[in-house]
Amino acid sequence: MNSADSSPAGLAPAHRALSLWRLRPFVQPYLGHLTLMTTAALLATLAGAVLPLVTRQVIDGPIRHHDRGAVIPLGLLALGFGLVEAVLVFLRRWTMSASALRLESDLRQALYRHLQRMPISFHDHWQSGQVVARTISDLSQIRRFIGFGLIFMVVNSATFVIVGTMLIITDPPLGLLVLACSAPLAWIMYRFETGYRSRSRRVQEKQGDLATLVEESSGGMRTIKAFGRRDLVQDRFHDQATRLRDLELGKVRLLAMIWAIVESQPQLLLAAIMLAGSYPVVHGTITLGTLVAFVALFLLLVWPIESMGWLLATAQEASTATDRVFEVLDAEPAIVDRPHPMPLVRSTGLLRFHNVGFTYPGAARPVLHGINLTIEPGETLALVGSTGAGKTSLAMLVPRLYDVTSGRITLDRHDIRDIRLTDLRRQVGMAFEEPTLFSASVRENLTFGLAGATDDQVAEALEVAQAGFVHELPWGLATRVGEQGLTLSGGQRQRLALARAVLGRPPLVVLDDPLSALDVHTEARVERALRAVLAGTTGLVVAHRASTVLLADRVALLVDGTIAAVGSHHDLLAGDPVYRNLLSAEAELGAAS
Ligand code: CTP
Ligand code: MG
């Protein structure tokens, strides 16, 4: 997944250009603005480049001939160009960041939108930290390049061409000398870039790994503390953090080396110009003004030369970041609508599994195979099986959180893959084993799947789930829960998740072990209320206890990924030893109720 650098090292610059080229659609809306800014920067450079020429006129004209009067117009001209340059620089600086920030935000939203469209199987395989690093730090790197690096690359290249030409025109022999001495620099830059590429990629990978570690440990803080393994986690983090530091240091070393080479280059060249330039002045073949102009022009090249290493590094990082971002964007959302999906307003609730098989992506063995089941409209089917039998997997197939890998599931006799996905999911109310609450109010959490729910619907759902406790929270339904809010108990969370699933009475309810975290009294009350809800809808309920099983009309026993038996609770209890074994602890309880 996190494919390392696979392109041959020598192709780095080409690869970089190709990667960055992929940002095209995102840059498009700001192209006008960027062009304007680049033009402003170019004009500023040009205005700056004119100054040495004016200087030459001043030295060779008025100064040489002691003509004070002529200095004033030339001085004013220089002042004018200086002012133009200042205004243009200000304009560019002022507007430069705006486009880049907007572009970053666009990309980030596109990425997030794409992540939302990806099936669960994608998230199973991607470390969350890698996804976080890509949506946060990689995108900032791209922004830095587009908002700053890109413009300067264009401007600096243009400066090289313009000033280089002017140098040759001003004094051909000296100009050619400067050009000849610059050639090795280009070669060094090229070598530098290939080395920098693989290093920056490794650093970015490592940042993702580190983000994953932080995320996991903050999520698993209770486990870490309860087992007293703070030092273990600490050590692991220390290892990774140190490795990141070493990688970064390697990068810095390379950058420092290139800085040293690049920094010394202009000084050496300047010395060469002075030496080579003083002879013709002394011998009168060129004027003093020409030499001064030449040096002044050359000084314009110092910053572009010095910044080249840094700019290439920024470009390189942005290109790596682009690769990483597009690795996510290129992943095809596997579960999507077919070309002409069937709309479905309200299903009758007839759910069928036709010889369904399912293998997790990348797994060797199927989790489910040969599943044949029919749940009639209004019927409730309990799904019982030992842990790891595939109950959750089967439940997730219904709203297409995963797609079957063989056979088909039909709703109202239509293959669920033909039904418009949003419609399908609106038919199914689902509660998971581990209920997730978002950082939002209780009400927002409840109406997550039904944004326009009325107060009556919310009250009814809370009643069914016996979640009246929400009214006793400090701000009632407006209380914030989830990571940034009040922490609820496992049972409370489960009841909210249950209320969310039954809100608006969807025609199909899929409950994955909905009562596991409830105490006996609450469980009895939730069961009574659930019975009322399930009476009106089709239900698929994963159950571990006899008391939950009794909510259902029929029971399906899942053994090793396939349906071993279907029947009433009492029939199975009497006739199936596996079933009896599974529910034995509660068998008496079940018989008694
Ligand atoms: N599995 C998998 N990849 C996943 C989820 C599950 O390979 N993303 C595998 C598990 O390792 C397990 C099998 O699928 O062997 C069935 O998992 P599951 O359907 O979750 O089992 P349940 O019957 O729901 O088990 P439990 O009662 O413990 O919830
Ligand atoms: Mg499960």
Low-confidence sequence ranges: 1-10, 587-593
Major sheet description: 6 strands, mixed
Give the cofactors and ligands: cytidine-5'-triphosphate, magnesium ion
The strand order across the widest sheet is 6-9-10-3-11-12
Within CATH, the superfamily of the largest domain carries the name ABC transporter type 1, transmembrane domain
**Can you tell me the overall shape?**
elongated
Number of domains in the coordinates? 2
**Beta-strand residue fraction:** 5-15%
Structural class computed from helices and strand pairing: alpha/beta
Question: CATH topology of the largest domain, which one?
Answer: ABC transporter transmembrane region fold
Give me the count of strands.
12
Mean pLDDT: 85
Number of H- or I-type helical stretches: 19
The radius of gyration computed from the alpha-carbon positions, rounded to a whole number of angstroms, is 35 Å
Roughly how many Å apart are the termini? 52 Å
Structure described in brief:
The chain has 593 residues and is of the alpha/beta class. It has 19 helices and twelve strands. The chain has two domains: 317 residues, ABC transporter type 1, transmembrane domain (ABC transporter transmembrane region fold); 242 residues, P-loop containing nucleotide triphosphate hydrolases (Rossmann fold, 3-Layer(aba) Sandwich).
Structure in words:
By secondary structure, the protein is α/β, with parallel strands linked by helices. The protein folds into two domains: 13-329, ABC transporter transmembrane region fold (Up-down Bundle); 351-592, Rossmann fold, CATH 3.40.50. The chain has helices spanning 12-21, 24-27, 31-63, 71-117, 120-125, 128-170, 172-219, 221-226, 230-282, 288-330, 391-397, 421-427, 442-446, 455-464, 490-502, 520-536, 546-549, 569-575, 577-592, and strands spanning 351-358, 368-375, 380-385, 406-411, 414-415, 428-431, 440-441, 480-481, 508-512, 538-542, 554-559, 562-567. Strand 9, helix 16 and strand 10 (538-542) form a beta-alpha-beta unit. The two termini are 52 Å apart. The chain binds cytidine-5'-triphosphate (CTP) and magnesium ion.
